[in-house]
């Protein structure tokens, strides 16, 4: 039993990290209806910039600030160059544009900062911690706490601030939002900048776990099932979806893996997502789309 | 209306309505076939066969398969790599377990099996629409790759995950040399493309376009929507499956699930975006672009920078240029190079 709990808890902690990446998607999706495939590339770009700076003895806080500035610049550029010309195009077109964007960001990051694996030490110890009957890694706990804090901060930001209210207005009805004077380009750039910040946090946490390297971009592939399960438009959904995928992955790997020959986690989340799509296409917390002819 | 809803109708938005059934310019096509079947075999070197012509033709076929599903019927798919893998492994097993079957029959059989798998993968399309379809097709991509890596029966319990392909023999002729593999590829591609052209112009093809341009409207006027979607998945996966078998047998010489990963699916997607969604010739133009650009970039960077950039940096540059081109095409020329060429031809007249 304690083994089961340990696996479950480890999976849930990993799930918080998935949720963190998924929230970056939800923000952009709500504001512009874009499934941003480049989120993974943004995670890589942020982590690479940060680690390149700290390796040149730039202090942590300054490296963080510079990286944030890079991500904000990127956000503004994306809004100008990619999103604005593609206004009102189909969702799949926008998705393919972000696919192209992810190639550009990945290529540019690796061209400028190299493709080798970087160690990233955030100064968080990785010791086993006993909580009741189960043992957890202290790093995972800290990472989950940081992710949780960020999630709460984002929820407050979008609940209480002007940008948050405008965002919800745009998500509800872009034309009405435009007509009362909400400036869509500014909002898009702001949302991409926040997504860049989320990518930075995710990049640091994931990067410290598995090294800063190209495989960081694959978190995007884990985030898609999270979003399908939770719903594309809900931050709560992203969190719950992340937890479900994290726990499901961990349990499937342990209990299904030996029966099926291992590495079940490459597709398990997608299998789960397809089941959700068939039963509840809008996800657990998503808004039900109404079709008009 | 939120953007998500405005665009749920999928690929139809933002493109010119009702493309006419593919016009065939008979003279141009005859010339092209003469070059491909006569002039090239007289002049091409092994390098041309192996590095350019064979991969170009096969990727054009893979793109053509995706174009049937996505360009003509509007059903988004990121599973092209998986369908290619099914075609390759199915053909391999047919050759292995039924050695009496001639190669073309095994190749067609591999295509049909891939089509059947495509049909199953397409089943969720009856409930899920537009963009969300990338989820089940991605699930298929990962699951199928995993199955071929895990289940030894498919690779005849080979110890290495890359199994070497059997010898290519048609009617007693050994086709293992580059020219033979080119002939096999070219003949298969020509036959399949001709079939696809017939299909696209038929009632089935018209149903596909009707579903793509307005699913609800199509259903109202009596187009069998479910049948159209499933047949599009079947046809697209079958064509991609044959491409996969050729990729394994005529190009790589090994059957390896890793050569049919998600990147291959993306590549097929790029081919039809750059070449032209809903255009058969676009698949070929896009494939030429995808195959030639990296080669050109490599030569260019060698010429300009004198080899001062290592291979990794060149491939990073290629990623940047590819990504930028995709965004550029989506913004400036949503109907792809095929539409651009068509316009140029009309202006020239």
List the helices and strands and how they pair.
The complex is a heterodimer of chains A (293) and B (349).
Chain A: H1 2-32, H2 39-55, H3 60-83, H4 91-113, E1 128-131, E2 134-137, H5 138-160, H6 162-172, H7 174-179, H8 184-210, H9 219-230, H10 235-260, H11 268-279
Antiparallel strand pairs in A: 1-2
Helix pairs in contact in A: 1-5, 1-8, 1-9, 1-10, 2-3, 2-4, 2-8, 3-8, 5-6, 5-8, 6-8, 9-10, 9-11
Chain B: H1 3-6, H2 26-43, H3 46-72, H4 80-97, H5 103-122, H6 134-150, E1 163-164, E2 169-170, E3 173-174, H7 178-201, H8 203-213, H9 215-220, H10 225-252, E4 254-255, H11 262-275, H12 280-305, H13 311-332, H14 336-348
Antiparallel strand pairs in B: 1-4, 2-3
Helix pairs in contact in B: 3-7, 3-10, 3-11, 3-12, 4-5, 4-6, 4-10, 5-10, 7-10, 8-10, 11-12, 11-14, 12-14
Written overview of the protein:
The complex is a heterodimer of chains A (293) and B (349). With 293 residues, chain A is mainly α. Chain A contains 11 helices and 2 strands, in the order H-H-H-H-E-E-H-H-H-H-H-H-H. Chain A is globular and about 60 Å long. The mean pLDDT of chain A is 81. With 349 residues, chain B is an all-alpha fold. The model of chain B is unreliable at 1-22 (pLDDT under 50). Classes of the chains: A mainly alpha (293), B mainly alpha (349). Chains A and B meet through helix 4, helix 9 and helix 11 of A and helix 1, helix 6, helix 11 and helix 13 of B.
What's the short version?
Chain B: One of its GO terms (cellular component) is plasma membrane. The complex is a heterodimer of chains A (293) and B (349). Chain A has 293 residues and is an all-alpha fold.
Question: What is the gyration radius of chain A calculated from CA atoms?
Answer: 19 Å
Query: Uncertain segments of chain A of ≥5 residues (pLDDT<50)?
Result: none
Kindly report the oligomeric state of this protein.
Answer: heterodimer
Largest sheet of chain A: 2 strands, antiparallel
Q: What is the N-to-C succession of helices and strands of chain B?
A: HHHHHHEEEHHHHEHHHH
Low-confidence stretches of chain B: 1-22
Q: Which class of secondary structure composition applies to the elements of chain B?
A: mainly alpha
Give the radius of gyration of chain B: 20 Å
Question: Would you tell me the structural class of the helices and strands of chain A?
Answer: mainly alpha
Q: In one word, what is the shape of chain A?
A: globular
What level of helicity do the residues of chain A show? over 70%
Overall average pLDDT of chain B: 82
Strand content of chain A: under 5%
Protein name (chain B): Branched-chain amino acid ABC transporter permease
Transmembrane segments (chain B): 22-42, 48-69, 76-95, 101-123, 130-148, 232-254, 266-297, 317-341
Membrane topology (chain B): Multi-pass membrane protein
GO cellular component, one term (chain B): plasma membrane
């Amino acid at each position: 039993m304690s083994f089961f709990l340990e696996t479950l808890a480890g999976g849930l902690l990993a799930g918080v990290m998935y949720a963190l990446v998924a929230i970056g998607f939800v923000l952009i999706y709500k504001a512009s209806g874009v499934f941003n495939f480049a989120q993974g590339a943004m995670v890589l770009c942020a982590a690479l910039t940060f680690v390149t700076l700290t390796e040149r003895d730039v202090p942590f806080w300054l490296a963080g600030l510079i990286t944030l500035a890079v991500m904000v610049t990127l956000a503004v550029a994306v809004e100008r160059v990619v999103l604005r010309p593609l206004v009102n195009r189909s969702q799949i077109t926008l998705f393919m544009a972000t696919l192209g964007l992810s190639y550009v960001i990945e290529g540019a990051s690796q061209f400028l900062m190299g493709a080798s694996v970087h160690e990233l030490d955030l100064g968080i110890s990785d010791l086993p911690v006993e909580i009741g009957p189960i043992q957890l890694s202290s790093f995972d706990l800290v990472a989950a706490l940081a992710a949780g804090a960020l999630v709460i901060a984002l929820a407050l930001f979008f609940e209480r601030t002007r940008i948050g209210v405008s965002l919800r207005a745009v998500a509800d009805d872009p034309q009405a939002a435009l007509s009362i004077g909400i400036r869509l380009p500014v909002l898009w750039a702001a949302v991409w900048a926040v997504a860049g910040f989320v990518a930075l946090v995710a990049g640091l946490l994931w990067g410290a776990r598995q090294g800063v390297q190209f495989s960081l971009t694959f978190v995007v592939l884990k985030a898609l099932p999270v979003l399908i399960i939770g719903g594309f438009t809900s931050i709560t959904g992203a969190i719950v979806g992340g937890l479900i995928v994290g726990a499901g992955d961990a349990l499937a790997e342990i209990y299904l893996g030996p029966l099926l020959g291992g590495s079940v986690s490459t597709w398990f989340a997608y299998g789960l997502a397809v089941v959700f799509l068939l039963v509840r296409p809008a996800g657990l917390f998503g808004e039900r789309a109404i079709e008009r002819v | 209306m939120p953007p998500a809803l405005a665009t749920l109708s999928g690929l139809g938005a933002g493109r010119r309505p009702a493309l006419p059934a593919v016009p065939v310019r008979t003279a141009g096509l005859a010339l092209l076939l003469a070059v491909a079947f006569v002039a090239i075999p007289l002049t091409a070197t092994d390098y041309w066969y192996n590095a350019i012509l064979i991969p170009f033709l096969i990727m054009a076929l893979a793109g053509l398969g995706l174009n049937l599903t996505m360009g003509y019927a509007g059903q988004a798919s990121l599973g092209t790599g998986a369908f290619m893998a099914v075609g390759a492994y199915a053909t391999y097993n047919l050759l292995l377990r039924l050695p009496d079957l001639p190669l073309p029959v095994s190749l067609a059989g591999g295509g049909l099996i891939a089509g059947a798998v495509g049909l199953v993968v397409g089943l969720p399309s009856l409930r899920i629409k537009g963009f969300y379809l990338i989820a089940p097709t991605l699930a298929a991509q990962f699951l199928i790759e995993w199955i071929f890596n895990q289940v030894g029966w498919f690779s005849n319990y080979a110890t290495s995950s890359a199994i070497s392909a059997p010898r290519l023999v048609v009617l007693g002729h050994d086709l293992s040399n580059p020219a033979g593999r080119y002939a096999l590829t070219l003949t298969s591609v020509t036959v399949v493309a001709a079939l696809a052209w017939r299909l696209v112009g038929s009632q089935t093809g018209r149903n596909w376009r009707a579903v793509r341009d307005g699913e609800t409207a199509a259903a109202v006027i009596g187009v069998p929507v479910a049948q159209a979607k499933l047949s599009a998945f079947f046809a697209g996966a079958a064509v991609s499956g044959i491409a996969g078998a050729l990729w394994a047998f005529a190009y790589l010489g090994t059957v390896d699930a890793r050569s049919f990963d998600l990147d291959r699916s993306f590549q097929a997607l790029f081919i039809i975006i750059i070449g032209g969604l809903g255009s058969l010739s676009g698949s070929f133009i896009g494939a030429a672009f995808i195959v030639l650009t990296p080669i050109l970039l490599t030569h260019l960077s060698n010429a300009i920078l004198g080899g001062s950039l290592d291979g990794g940096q060149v491939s990073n540059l290629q990623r940047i240029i590819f990504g930028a081109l995709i965004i550029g095409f989506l913004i400036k020329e949503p109907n792809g190079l095929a539409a651009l060429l068509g316009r140029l031809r009309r202006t020239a007249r």
